[in-house]
């Protein structure tokens, strides 16, 4: 995991970067709103990230892109036969890994994941009603498995976070918050519904799903309801980001731009490096990446939550990096302007508001030796 001194050293260059890594396109679930669903037959060629090259890939991400945080995704990442080895490689490389899963295989691999240095697990939940969730997932009994896994994570000092799509399956957000607490989650993060196909290799969408066929007004109400459960369970989506998405839905000007391609990346199972899942062509093969391919163009083309939410959190470090650059150019007024604006103040508030969450994701303050499994 990255050390505090390492993170601070990166501030003059805009701070650390994040990478989402899809390690496979294979999934054991049947989610209506996802094209990775195995019953849809859209995954015609099963792909697995080549773990033998993963160490070299981490070195490139660390040294050339300043990546210090990554998220293993899929498909279902726990189906990758080398996922534990890759998590251990990330920790050894000074990169803090998290993982997104449907939870079905988590119990069998939890201790190994913890020993590999993964401290936060994102587990998908679709509804406050376990029967509705399990029907959408095609995984009968998964809620009981998730609850048991969350209890074991608490004993290991890990943080289970619920990952919830703001779909029509969520009919009562306060009931959802209570249900997540009952399952043992420490926080929730909301994903924003999407029907349109991504331009990249990612298949986290479904063009024919009715449950993500949500109008702008319905989604605005969902944002208000999701924001309103912070007294029940911590919500990891920054308020400033959620407010920006509401502005977007209302046709108003957004305050924050996306830093995907500059401080956030997507790496697929082919080792192609993309600025994000939504983009229609990769930046390059990772093996050709030298830093010159990074993109910073003020993009606001979509509302993909992981990139837009993270961009608010990363804005402060990016602004400080910009200020350092302006000072090196002997432009003190421009340096001050990079910091003294509404966006930077809003980002500072978001960072302060999510301080505990950021500490948990970064591993700062946590022992570098993973806790041993309880007997």
From TrEMBL:
Cofactor(s) needed for function: [4Fe-4S] cluster
Domain of life: Bacteria
Pfam annotation, one family: Radical_SAM
Sample GO molecular function, one term: metal ion binding
SUPFAM superfamilies xrefs: Radical SAM enzymes
Phylogenetic lineage: Bacteria, Pseudomonadati, Pseudomonadota, Alphaproteobacteria, Hyphomicrobiales
Keyword hit for S-adenosyl-L-methionine: yes
Keyword vocabulary terms for this entry: Iron, Iron-sulfur, Metal-binding, S-adenosyl-L-methionine
The UniProt record lists the keyword Transport: no
Residues annotated as domain Radical SAM core: 13-230
Protein name: Radical SAM core domain-containing protein
């Amino acid at each position: 995991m990255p050390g505090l001194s390492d993170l601070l050293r990166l501030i003059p260059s805009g701070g650390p970067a994040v990478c989402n890594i899809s390690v496979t396109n294979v999934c054991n679930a049947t989610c209506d709103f996802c094209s990775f669903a195995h019953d849809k037959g859209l995954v015609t060629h099963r792909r697995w990230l080549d773990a033998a090259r993963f160490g070299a890939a981490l070195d490139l991400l660390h040294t050339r892109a300043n990546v210090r945080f990554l998220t293993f995704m899929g498909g279902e990442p726990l189906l990758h036969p080398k996922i534990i080895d890759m998590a251990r490689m990330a920790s050894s490389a000074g990169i803090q890994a998290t993982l997104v899963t449907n939870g079905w295989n988590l119990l069998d691999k939890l201790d190994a994941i913890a020993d590999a240095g993964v401290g936060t697990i994102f587990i998908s939940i679709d509804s406050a009603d376990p029967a509705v969730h399990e029907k959408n997932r095609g995984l009968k009994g998964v809620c009981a498995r998730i609850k048991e896994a969350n209890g074991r994570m608490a004993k290991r000092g890990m943080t289970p976070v619920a990952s919830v799509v703001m779909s029509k399956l969520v009919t009562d957000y306060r009931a959802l918050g209570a249900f997540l607490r009952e399952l043992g989650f420490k926080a929730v993060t909301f994903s924003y519904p999407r029907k349109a196909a991504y331009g990249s290799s990612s298949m986290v969408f479904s063009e024919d799903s009715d449950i993500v066929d949500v109008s702008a007004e319905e989604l605005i109400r969902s944002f208000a309801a999701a924001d309103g459960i912070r007294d029940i369970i911590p919500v990891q989506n920054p308020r400033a980001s959620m407010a920006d998405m509401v502005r977007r839905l209302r046709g108003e000007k957004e305050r924050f731009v996306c830093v995907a391609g500059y401080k956030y990346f997507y790496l697929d199972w082919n080792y192609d490096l993309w600025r994000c899942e939504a983009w229609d062509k990769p930046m390059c093969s990772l093996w050709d990446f030298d830093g010159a391919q990074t993109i910073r163009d003020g993009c606001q083309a979509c509302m993909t939550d992981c990139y837009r939410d993270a961009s608010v959190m990363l804005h402060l470090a990016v602004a400080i990096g910009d200020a350092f650059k302006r000072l090196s150019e002997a432009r003190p007024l421009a340096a001050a302007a990079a910091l003294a604006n509404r966006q930077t103040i809003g980002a500072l508030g978001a960072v302060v508001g999510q301080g505990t969450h950021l500490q948990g994701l970064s591993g700062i303050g946590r022992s570098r030796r993973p806790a041993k499994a309880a007997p």
